[in-house]
Amino acid sequence: MTFLYRTLLSIAFTLTSLSLAAGGGWPQPKGKGFLKLSEWWLISDQHYTDVGGLDPNITIGVFNTSLYAEYGLTDRITGVIYFPFFSRTYQNNQISEVTQEIIVQGEAVNGIGDTDISLKFGLSNPGSPIAVATTLTLGLPLGNDSGGSQGNLQLGDGEFNQMILLDAGTSWQVGSVPMYANAYTGYNNKTKGFSDEFRIGGEIGANLLNKRLWLIGRLNVVDALEETGSDTRPPGATSIFANNTQFTSVGAELSYNIGDNWGVSAGYATAVSGRIIFASPSYTAGVFTRF
Amino acid sequence: MKTALHLLSFCLLLSLTACIGDDFIDDSVEPEVRITNTIDSLQIGTDFAFEVTFLDNVGRVDNDVPVSWTSSDPEIISVTSFGVATALASGSATLTATAEFQSETYHEDFLVHVGESTTTIMEEDERRVGTIRTTSSYRLEGMFEMTTSDDGLLIEVDDTYITTSALPGFYLYLSNNPNSIANAIEIGEVTVFEGAHTYTVQGDGLGLDTYGYLLYYCKPFNIKVGDGKIEKPE
C-alpha cells in the first residue's frame, strides 16, 4: 500500500519545489543572496487516476512552512536550500451520511519535510544576453514517509533523489516594463523503486507598478520515465509522494517589493492533467528578502 | 524582521490549525431481512429452525429489530415467532419473515415443500456468483464464484479478472454495504492484478449469505474502487 498516496503527496512536494525554482539561469553574485519564508498548502478531495480520470478521495491536506535560500558562493556558483522545517499532513474523518457515525477516523502527522540542497553553476558569463546555468539538487528524505495508522500520511517520499537541471533565461524590456523568460529541462534520478523523471518547464515574468510588482506565470511538466512494477513499488503513499507520477501544471505568482530589499509573494499552481496526482490547486504565501 | 516574524507566526498558525474536518459518504442501502439457512423441503413430522438476520439502512446487523414469522398455510407448515417450522401435512407453504424498521415493513419469503426428507437447497445452488465491476476510473472487471469448504469460504475469481496495479493500499472486503467498509470484514490486500485466483476466508458463522458484496477499496484514499454483488446462480 503505497503508491498512489505516495504519488499524490510526492506531487505536492514536487509542485512546491517547482514553484520555488527561483533563479533560473541566473546565479547569485558572490556574497549576495535571497531568503524566503513561506507557507505552501494543498487541500484535495480528488485526484487524477492512472488513466487520467478524475476520482474522489478522502480530503487530504498538506501544509509546509519552509525556508528557501540562495547564496552566491562565487559569481558562478550559488548554494540553494529548501527546508520545510514544519510540515503537516492530515486526512478528514469519513462519516456515514445515514448514521452520522465515524467510519474512518481522521488523523494528522507533523514534522519536518523532505529537504532539497542544491548547487547552481553558471555556464554563461555574468551579463550574457542568455543566462545558462545547471543545477544539481539532492533531495534528502528527512520527512516521515509512513505516518498515520495506515502509513499513508507522509511528510516525504522516503527516497534520496538526485536531480540535474539545465536552465536558460533571458530578459528584455517592453516599453518601460522589464520582462524575463526562463526555460529548463532536467532529469530526476529517484531511488527505492521510484521511477526516474524527466522534467521540463518554463516561466515568464513582467515587472509592473514602477518595478515593484513581479507577475510570473509558470508551466511545469513531469514525466515518469518508466513505470515501476508492483513488485518493486515502494510501500504506501498518496499523491504527492507517490510513484510514477506524471503531470502538467500551470501556476502564477505575484511578488511585491515593499521595501528596497524585501517584499511579499503569493502563488497558485494546479495540475491541468496528470496521472496519480491530486487534482486541486496549491497555494503559497511568503515574505522574502535580498541581501 | 518584524514582518518576517509575523509571517512565520501566521504560517505556523495556518499549519497547526489545518484541522481535521468531516467527509460524508452516502452509505444508505435498502434494509433487508435475510434468511441464511433456507431449505428446499422439510420432512413431514419434523421441525426446522430458520436463522434470520435483519440488516439496517447501512447494512449493519441489527438484532434489536424483531422479526415475525408467518406461514401461508399453517395446516401444512406451522411456524413459531422464533422461526421454528413444523411440517404437518403434505403440500407446500410459503414462509415469510417480516421486520418493522423506521415505520417501514421489510420481508423475505420462500416456498418450502413437505416431503420424504429435509433437504437443503439443490446442490448446484450451494454456491454464489457475481460480476466484479469498477465504480471508479480504475480498471476492475471479472467474475467470481463463492463456495464453502472445510477451510472456510472460498472465493474463486476467474480468468477474466483484471485490475490496476497503480493503487496503493488496494484491499478486498466482504460487506453488506457496497459503499462502506464499516461492519465489513477485510479479506486481504489485492496482490493479483490479472487472471484467476482464490481467496479463502475464515470467520465464525461465515456463510454464503452472511455478506452481500465483494468490495474493492483503496484504504489510503478511503475510496471505493469497485464491487461485486453476491447472488444466487440463476
Key descriptive features of the protein:
heterodimer, A: 291 residues, mainly beta, 12-stranded antiparallel β-barrel, two-stranded antiparallel ribbon, disordered N terminus, B: 234 residues, 9-stranded antiparallel sheet, 5-stranded mixed sheet, 1 helix, 20 strands, 6% helix, elongated
Number of helices of chain B: 1
In DSSP terms (H or I, runs of 4 or more residues), the helix count of chain A works out at 1
Distance between the termini of chain A: 46 Å
**Residue ranges of chain B: pLDDT <50 for 5 or more in a row?**
none
Task: Identify the biggest protein-protein contact and residues per side.
Answer: A-B, 69 and 47 residues
Output the strand order for the largest sheet of chain A: 1-2-3-7-8-9-10-11-12-13-14-16
Determine the N-to-C terminus distance of chain B.
77 Å
Into which percent range does the helicity of residues of chain B fall?
under 10%
Percentage of residues in DSSP E strands of chain A: over 45%
Q: Provide mean pLDDT of chain A, rounded.
A: 85
